[in-house]
Amino acid sequence: MSGCFRRWALLTVMTFAAAFLPDVAAAVDPELQNEFEQALRDFDEAQRIQNDRPDRARQLFRASEQRFSSIAAAGVVNGRLEFNIGNCHLQAGDVGRAILHYVRAQRLIPRDPLLADNLAVARSRCLTPIEPTRQSEFFKSVFFWHHQTAAATRFRVGLAMYIAVWVLLSARSLTLRRWITVLIVVCALVAGACGTSVAAQRWSDRNAPEAVVTAMDVVVYKGPGTGYQRQFEQPLQPGVECTVRERRGTWWNIELVDGNAGWIQAGDAELISEETEALSQVLRP
Length: 285
What we know:
Blueprint: H1 2-20, H2 30-49, H3 54-73, H4 79-92, H5 95-108, H6 113-124, H7 134-142, H8 144-147, H9 151-174, H10 178-207, E1 210-213, E2 241-248, E3 251-256, E4 261-265, E5 269-271
Antiparallel strand pairs: 1-2, 1-5, 2-3, 3-4
Helix pairs in contact: 1-9, 2-3, 3-4, 4-5, 5-6, 9-10
């Protein structure tokens, strides 16, 4: 009996270790690593001279952003990389794309305090301020663990809890202990919550994806075409966050965080969830 419990304990420890230990970093292409380091040097140099030579600094910020973006285009998905791209856009004055990449980074490293501060700065510079509804703020506060935890973490925790349920069920079949039953219920609840959270995010990314306006003076229409009346008197400016409710040709029906909706041309905004499920690679600074 004691041998069986030792095996169960070992399996449980291995399961939790697999769920919570950091992922082993995939090998990084040396060329991408060199590109990353050069982008960092360009960014540091731009920050150093931005007060004395602002035009040259903007050029370096753009060059740095292009290098970081080329790494992302090569298939590297990494929160710090998205954070750096957002920093370049913010320094270059492109508020829309700064918010876009900061929000992408937030999905991968949601608890980074510096990222939160920079995102708040970028949002404060958006020229079309829109207050979210109380209902959306309430749901974010209630389901904070869904919004403040990366999807990969929720998936690993849910998988660990699911395996733990079956391990504990096996143990319970051999010995009836009350604490085992309690653990089974707790693990099952956590596994269900994590699984539902991940499934809900996957569904929303496919059917109601979030987006950020990146173009200037975006006119919102009542229908999918310029022949319709304007929905709002004032056009939207870069940085406005929205949800894409419907796609019809080259037109998107978007809903703003205050609940108002209308149609914009698809090229005036970019989706946040492009590569949320790809393997992250660690880039050494």
